[in-house]
Amino acid sequence: MSGTSGNNYPQRQHPSNLIDPFDDSVETSQSTDNLSVPQAAAIPSFRPYFSQSDNTSFDPYFNDSIEDDEEQVPLYSESAGLTRQITNMSAYSEANLPLTSGNISPTASVGVGEHTFMSSKTEMSSGDESPNGSGERIIHINSPTKNSQKFLHNRISTTKYNAFTFLPKFLYEQFSKYANMFFLFTACIQQIPFVSPTNPFTTLGTLIVVLAATACKEILEDYKRHRSDSEVNQRKCKYLDLSEETYVVKEWNRVNVGDIIRVESGEFFPADLILLSSSEPEGLCYIETSNLDGETNLKIKQAASETAHFTSPIETSRLAGYIKSETPNNSLYTYDGLLVMSTQSGQKRVPLDPTQLLLRGAQLRNTSWIYGIVVFTGHETKLMRNATLIVTMEVVKFQQALLINDDLDMYYEKTDTPALCRTSSLVEELGQIEYIFSDKTGTLTCNEMEFKQCSIAGMAYADQVEEARRARVVDGVEVGFHDFKQLKENIRNHPTGNVINEFLSLLSICHTVIPERKDDNPANIEYQASSPDEGALVKGASDLDYVFTTRRPKSVNVRINGADLEYEILNICEFNSTRKRMSTVVRGPDGKIKLYCKGADTVILERLSDDNPFVEQTLQHLEEYATEGLRTLCIAMREVSDEEYRVWSTVHEKAATTIVNRQEELDKAAEMIEKDLFLLGATAIEDKLQDGVPETIHTLQQAGIKIWVLTGDRQETAINIGLSCKLINEEMTLITVNEESHWETKEFLEKRIHSVKDGRTLTFALEKDIETTFLELATMCKAVICCRVSPLQKALVVKLVKRHLKAILLAIGDGANDVPMIQAAHVGVGISGLEGMQAARSADVSISQFRYLKKLLLVHGAWSYQRLSKLILYSFYKNITLYMTQFWYAFQNGFSGQVIYESWTITYYNVLFTVLPPIVMGVFDQYVSARMLDRYPQLYSLGQKSEFFNVKNFWGWALNAFFHSLILYVISIYVFQDGLVLTDGQLADHWFWGTALYTAVLATVLGKAALITDLWTKYTYIAIPGSFVFWIVFIFIYGMIAPRFNISEEYFGVIPNLFTSPIFYLFIVVVPVICLLRDYVWKYLKRMYYARTYHTIQEIQKFNIPDYRPRMEQFQKAIRKVRAVQRLRKSRGFAFSQNESGQEARLIRVYDTTISKPKG
Predict the structure, then answer these.
(1) Catalytic residue among 59, 259, 407, 439
(2) Any binding-site annotation on 439?
(3) Which range, 39-53, 836-850, 1103-1117, is most confident?
(4) Secondary structure, 3-state, 387-428
């Protein structure tokens, strides 16, 4: 389901028994009692009901029944790792979460059933009940003392702990892990005298060290989240100081419900506000909601006419009354409220709907300032209710995260932004990703539109032209491009000069852009456009000396080569998704009436007259533009006689005033005049992709990763970007799913088991009885694009795949609207981009460019998975090898509890003598280089298939450890069973044997580490040979000194005899070689006769074998371009992005840029 953009809210068909939920005269409880089941079923919008036995509020995302200073605790948590355990503690299905909808009525009147639910305590958070118990919140205006309700503060918190909860939460989380519980139990047993033969602190000391290190890491990571929260909470905004009757600065976290806030252009809204007035005519303002729904097209909001005149602090401070508001919820596109204003003549009631609602996280654009009153704060804002913002951490290796942070290849110099791994517990999962869910705007694209090329009168122009592509005549036909400098010259002295003039005049006149001059520099014009495409076209015309300067209600002024010309705007035929075009009827300075029309090529070409000489050349240029991923429009015009216009304007005026099917009538009227057009040419705009996006997506697909794009943009735009970024290509069969009902969606999905899906269809596809069919179809596709998707739907799609597939999922986005999706995936990646830092703060890993995802996954991810797999397997191996020798000895000593090794030496085994090899392997080992992993992305499938860590590998390592321990024990028994005669005639005792066997075990496991290491660095030499040397030095010193202090008394007299015995040296050399001989032979046979793919790549890397694939890639690129042209010839209709709010024409009629705006 997708919410509609702007203010285009379809009207809901209400039942006959409607009431005003905010009318005090209505007996709500009586109406509720009389409500029958069929009537309740008729209500088309509803919220899921969560029963609660007491008076405590309940929210499906946060438990709000807490004190203000407490953190918001999610009702479910997850832990992750190579051996994953997922525990869902929530008592509801994720698929049953409420969906946002653009079809819910914005009016204050609602059905009885809906009002009854709004009044229920289950929908309210603490403090939301009004004194009369009706369930709505009462917000008094300019009267803080009357706001007796205890509303939630505006602070946000994404931290996991505070000073009071750290210890219990940390201990609970750590001892929820089976490993820690095992060691705790073992440590407790060791404290009982005469039960355990080992030292009481052998296990306990190690456990305390591990827990302390983990606690330090948790505190550090939580402190980073706390610091990020503080940055947001301490942002500045202006609020109305009633005593001074002016706006003063205060921090976001001090904003309260009922405050009147002033927000200026470019600033973000600190809370959910009701728009009171603005600097624009009739209380209009433009906002960008890319943080919320991913859309970069500006949305139009408008204050109620009763408050639009409050344009100064003094006037605003005199506003009195209260707001009856709905309770906090997560529906981004709905709002019901009532403003009751106290006036001299009595109370005036003003209904409030989403048109006046300004959401936290949205940004004010193209508007100097607005005044708004705060209705929701903090975690009760609609943005925060669309995000679960707690990430469960798990300790794996902190150092691997630091390597990601320090990678200069992922450092973006332009914004001085390095990569940042916030959650070190998930680094190994970066090497096992099977699905990527990505936002589009700001993630794949730069969020910038540029007017790059155009075709005018059959001639191609571009802003920059390489020498090899410059225009030239071949076989009597002109090919190539002219630059824009040549275009300016052609206006004056080329036969096509008149066509160029009309083309650029159309770009500067036929639009809904507002020109704005700054007080400090009136000559500098900024264009405020709700559509980024329109803004780029008007800016492009301005750069070519056709400067749009002034807009009045009935005319516009354009400065053409220094001459200021006025054009009368007679009519505007607006864009909508059906028409795919926009037309403007103007009367020029010469008195002639002209129709200017721009739109998709499919709709323009079929409306051309017979006499059009430039069609063929323009179509060739369109195909070239489209294959380059540019967004194209066709440009056409015709002259209209005065008589024809007089007749048509009568028809158009009648259509504009009709009540029934007004839009259809207006479309029919437009059809009457949009005919016999003359094709002037075409434009090409680049929705600029981030650097390296197509190559990254192509490489990730080669690595076996499926990519789904979930975007708030409309379908045509999403498909166009999908083609340009190589997500989809001409070889694929494109299945587009656009259904209007549950049953139509179900029927279609069952028939077509490829896909482009819109938000409305997605609503039905996520319902219980269809979701598995939808998932089956989607997973069969190589790529999926879901468009017009709300933030909550993004999360639900991710959770659907997560719930049904045994695959590790990654979500990547750059705006607050992507936070739910990021948090729903196993691994969340945030891009610190133009849409702010919300996604980056909430993600496990933050990067500054999408292209860095390739190295993050294919290199760091693959390395981390392989390293940690080796680390875990080796750690089990080395412990089994040591402790199984004790197990074999138990059979010989009759299970008496006697041990082979001294207790503290056993403790030091993992803490000192074998701690470095797994750390060094886990941090520095590389089974192939970064260059090879990038060149051969297919190697990534080793992680997806769990080739390095699986049950078979685990038992293989375990059996090998059993084998080594048995060999070590049996040979040692053979050598030492009758006592070894020493040089002084004495016999070696039990501890001599134990120390010699311990040394041999250590030599064996360190030798095994050397055998499995792929990359030797200086740290490897320190870790493996160095550890053995350290043991020899340590035991010599420790064994001589410790017994004198009554510590490790077993070593008394052992060391001098041990280090003077030739048998000891022979034993610790020969026995490890015997153990590892089998391992070496097996490694040789496997590489020579059962080679794996990475073995081959290792050989290519070692001998630097050249790669001849680039030649083939160039050939394939040429083939793809030919197929792209063939596909575009079959299916036309290039991208055209434009708002379709249905009120553009009316809104631009109220603007007069010659009149100065109020300063506020």
Answers:
(1) 439
(2) yes
(3) 836-850
(4) CCCCCCCCCCCHHHHHHHHCCHHHCECCCCECCEECCHHHHH
